[in-house]
Amino acid sequence: MLDALFSLSFLSLFLVPFMSSYSTSLNFLFFWMTWSTLIFSHSALKVEMIGTIVVRLLCFGVPSTLMYLFDVMAPSVAVIIKSQGEAGLPGGKRRRNLKLKHFQIVGWSLLNLFLGLFVQALIEILLVKVLRWRSALKISSRLPMPGSIIKHLLCGIVLRGILSYVAHRYALHHPRSPMIASLHKSWHHSLRGIYPLTACYDHPLPYLVGKFFPMYLPAVLLRFHLLTYLLYLAIISLEETFAYCGYTVMPMSFFLGGVARRTELHLESGGHGNFGPWGLLDLIFGSNIPDGDDDDDNDERERMFQGRVSEAIERSNRGIREGTLRRNTRKT
């Protein structure tokens, strides 16, 4: 019961100031009072882990699961806005094509998500309880200054991009690390296309090396304030959510659409390029996979999209006609 109340109070920390009609000063005062109450009434580890869990679930777990259910429950509708067409659906266009493997992918994805949370908690316990050092993240009732937040966010995102590129290219796809590379190939690269939740699908070891540590280490090295870390984590979680959703329509498609397309090309090429999340390092070090997305390709994609829409409309009309015919047959 206390844990539930604590979780609700943590959620209100982020939601209420933005949903209220009070002035900015009162919102800030409310935020500071709520934050201070959490810090003084609960252990630092509990505040850090509950906050991390809330952000990961709100920005990745819940939206990715909802999009996955949409793909599974309405594949004939979802395929219209899938950039990879039928390959971007867990079981193809028909729900009966779903197999045990597709649910195992979901299970391993969620397991890896919570594995990262467990490792984060383990690191904090080791530092604070065992070694008697300070915590990996700065947990204080004093709120970080806006300039500090922006600086740490920019540095963290840049450092995370560098670490992701190095880990992905030289650990997950390099002959000198055959065990990790083999696991990554047989797990993540067994996917025929990307769809929601597959951002975390991999063997646990490659997931920690290629996803978790490149995300977590910048926050530790720069010792983020917990609030800065939660904002940083929210940005990365949303990036993973939309980069792996496989949809052609998404928020901020100018930025996230490029990340998503690079991810698709990496998977389609068998991991021969596009190792970084944003592509700059791939361009610098010659590992970029050209999209070849010229005007002809754009026209072809437009024709394919129109074809999917027409097919869906025709299927719907055919179902209506068949239903009407059956009802008329019963009456006669």
TrEMBL record:
Entry's localization field: Membrane
Key words of the record: Membrane, Transmembrane, Transmembrane helix
Gene Ontology CC terms, in alphabetical order: membrane
GO MF annotations in UniProt: iron ion binding; oxidoreductase activity
GO biological process, one term: lipid biosynthetic process
Annotated ranges, domain Fatty acid hydroxylase: 154-287
Keyword Transmembrane appears in the UniProt entry: yes
One Pfam family named in its UniProt record: FA_hydroxylase
Main location: membrane
Chain segments annotated as transmembrane: 49-70, 105-128, 148-167, 215-235
Signal sequence range: none
Protein name: Fatty acid hydroxylase domain-containing protein
Upper classification of the organism: Eukaryota, Fungi, Dikarya, Ascomycota, Pezizomycotina
